[in-house]
Design brief:
Layout lengths: L13 H22 L4 H28 L5 H23 L4 H30 L6 H16 L1
Helix pairs in contact: 1-2, 1-4, 2-3, 2-5, 3-4
Bound molecules: fe (ii) ion (FE2).
C-alpha cells in the first residue's frame, strides 16, 4: 500500500505539511526499495533514516504544540510514541534476522500516518484556526530550528 499527498491531508501549517509530505515520500521510497529487494545494508540505512526523520518531525510538531499552548499535548505525544516504538522494534527485529519486520513496518507506518494526520493532527489544525492571532508560520519555523539545534 502506498499513499499520496492530497490537500485533504493539509493541517494548514506550511512547514508541518512539508514535513508530512517528506515523511510520505520517505515511506514510499522505502516501500519501493523493498519491492525491488534491496540489500541488507541499504535497508538498514533506510530504517535508520526513517527513525531519524520521524523523531525530527515529531520534535518539530510537539515543539509547535507547546508554543501554541495546545491543551491536548500529552495525548498527542503518546500517539507519536506508538510509531517511534514500532520503528525501534522493527529495527531490532530486522537486526535479529527477521526480514518480515521491514515490510510490516512500512505497511503499519503508512496506515498510521494517514490516520494520524486525519484524526489527530487535524485537531491542532482546528485549534490554530480558533487562534487567528497566532503567527503559525513563525512558530513552526522556530520549532523546526529548535529541533535542528537539538540534533547538533
Ligand atoms: Fe502528530
Amino acid at each position: 500500500m502506498k499513499i499520496m499527498w492530497t490537500d485533504e491531508l493539509s493541517v494548514d501549517v506550511p512547514e508541518l505539511d512539508e514535513q508530512h509530505r517528506r515523511l510520505i515520500d520517505l515511506l514510499n521510497e522505502f516501500y519501493d526499495a523493498i519491492e525491488r529487494g534491496h540489500d541488507e545494508e541499504a535497508i538498514r540505512k533506510l530504517i535508520e533514516g526513517m527513525e531519524e526523520y520521524t523523531v525530527f518531525h515529531f520534535c518539530t510538531e510537539e515543539q509547535f504544540l507547546i508554543e501554541i499552548n495546545y491543551p491536548d499535548l500529552e495525548k498527542h505525544q503518546k500517539a507519536h510514541q506508538i510509531l517511534i516504538n514500532e520503528v525501534k522494534s522493527a529495527k531490532a527485529r530486522y537486526q535479529n534476522g527477521d526480514r518480515r519486520a521491514v515490510r510490516e513496518l512500512i505497511a503499519f507506518a503508512l496506515a498510521w500516518l494517514y490516520s494520524h494526520i486525519l484524526k489527530v493532527d487535524k485537531k491542532y489544525s482546528n485549534y490554530c484556526k480558533e487562534c487567528p492571532f497566532l503567527n503559525i508560520d513563525l512558530i513552526a519555523k522556530r520549532s523546526l530550528n529548535k529541533c535542528l539545534e537539538n540534533e547538533g
